Amino acid sequence: MLVRRIEQTARDGQHVHCLNPECKQTWKATRDDDGFGFEQVTVPVNCEACSAANLMPWRFFLDMKHDEVGSFSCHSCRQKNYVQWRLMQVHRESSVGCQTDA
Questions:
Q1: Closest CA to 55 of 84, 76, 36, 80
Q2: Residue among 55, 50, 63 nearest 24 (CA)
Q3: pTM here?
Q4: SS3 of residue 96 by DSSP
Q5: pLDDT digits (tens, 9 = 90+) for 36-78
Q6: By the 8 A CB rule, do 25 and 15 touch?
């Protein structure tokens, strides 16, 4: 019943979070010719040991505090990996077409 209500009110592209506060899953509402659906919102993180891409829930990172270290086990090899959420300044390459103020 709840999913049917969300289907009627959700807009295309809108993010919908799991109702369980312990769950980090987020879905993006999609509408197309076939009807209405949801796709998971994830961030790919490669394993340090086997390089397999692990699709981590988007909210796993958004809920982290500045410089907090989180961990996950690789879905392929079970290696424990560590991640840290940091704001970093980067310099754009001149070939990107970035103009600088003079």
A1: 76
A2: 63
A3: 0.62
A4: helix
A5: 788 899 999 999 999 999 999 988 888 888 889 999 999 999 9
A6: no
Q: Is 95 helix (H, G, I), strand (E, B) or coil?
A: helix
Domain positions in the chain are: 1-40, 42-87
Q: Show the tokens assigned to 54.
A: 């692990």
Structure tokens at 49: 């040991």
17: tokens are: 């979070």
Cβ neighbour number for residue 47 with a 10 Å cutoff: 19
Overall size of the chain counted in residues: 102
Cα–Cα distance measured from residue 24 to residue 50, given in angstroms and rounded to the nearest whole number: 25
Furthest CA-CA distance within the chain: 59
